[in-house]
Prior knowledge:
Chain A: Keywords: Heme, Iron, Metal-binding, Signal, Transport. The complex is a heterodimer of chains A (about 140) and B (about 280). In chain A, helix 2 (about 35-50) packs across helix 3. Chain A has 6 helices and no strands. Chain A is mainly alpha-helical and about 140 residues long. Chain B has one domain (about 1-279): Porin, CATH 2.40.160.40. In chain B, strand 10 and strand 11 form a beta hairpin. The model of chain B has no long low-confidence stretch (mean pLDDT about 95).
Amino acid sequence: MNKLLMVTVLFAALLMAPSQADARDDHLYNELGGTAGIEQIVEDLLFNSIDDRRIRHHFEGVDMVRLHEKLSEQICELAGGPCVYTGDDMVKSHTGMGVTRGDFNALVEALQLAMDDNEVSVPAQNRLLARLASMYDEIVGL
Amino acid sequence: MRKLFTHSAALLLLASSGAAAAEGRLLATGGATNVEGAAGGGLVPWAVISAYTEDDEIGGTVAVSRAQVDDYRLDVTAASFSFRNRLEVSVASQIFNLENLGTELRQQVFGLKYRVAGDLIYGQLPQISAGVQYKRNTRYDLPSAVGSQRDSDWDAYIAASRVWLAGPFDRTWLANVTVRATRANQFGLLGYGGDLNDSRKLQVEAATGMFINRALAVGVEYRQKPDNLGFAEEEDAMSAFVAWFPSKNVALVGAFLDLGSIAGARSQTGYYLSLQASF
């Protein structure tokens, strides 16, 4: 019985562990300047992207207002903020776009510049980039 | 020295022109140019492909490097061509000045590196590359006199490189491990194979670095070397480096070097400088 109790406590501890990570996630949300900061970063990211001859073709005919809204939600959620991403999943929204490896990197650079311009610290930039990089396989080559 | 300056000036001109540069990869992912002409650190060839070629891009690098230790100086001129993020062809010309003897050694290195699998940053698998280097001494009297068995030879290596975008301290980190089959004496400058040992041995080379920001990295490298010649002990080499990538066209590396004992001259330490232009 004691063993069962120990196992239960261990499980409970494991289930609690992500909430600690969440506290840290919320920290990233704050470091990005909260919802307003993220919306500004995403706006700059989109302007940088359509200025970039390597990837601007991906944005032709796209509803930029909607894209700004969904991308802001997504980054806010990823950063641990109080948002819920309501857009399509990554595979669905990128299928048929033919995003190349170079395109993905160009988008990363557009985001890096946007974060520079909004004075996001290097550690916070890295944490957001690491989370976005994990979506690489759901975006590139579809 | 004047020649080095001329080369450097030409390099900077070439780099600043920036004509149709390959730019599909993130900053610094082409590495610097190692002393053998391969993309990597200063001492170690890494799994990365030179320049910034991604998808169907082609590109390349040219580089000049100098290692100055207590009794010797190495000058390297190197160039590479890269095809997609897949294949790297390189050439390097080395002049090794034995300042106390008033003579010099010369070596040429022709390299080929192929990305076999994985990616430096994305996905589950680290970037894994396989490479070969054909090396030859173009002045062989001294290597021959100290026991070298041949004036040209092949090295083969496998390298794995990986970047963690948010590693310790939420900084971006790189690690590389290279395993090389070689019987080169002092990088090949003193020939290949010797009186003590004449077969290739597996040697481990490693590098790790941390990016302070995405243009500036600090790190260390270690290169194990065989000890084939009876006339003098050969030791492993290490370096501690600072690498600066002001743009995708230029990389500048400065390092502290400890090359150990070379041809009887003990504890050879000094500096390393390397300037690379990418296009």
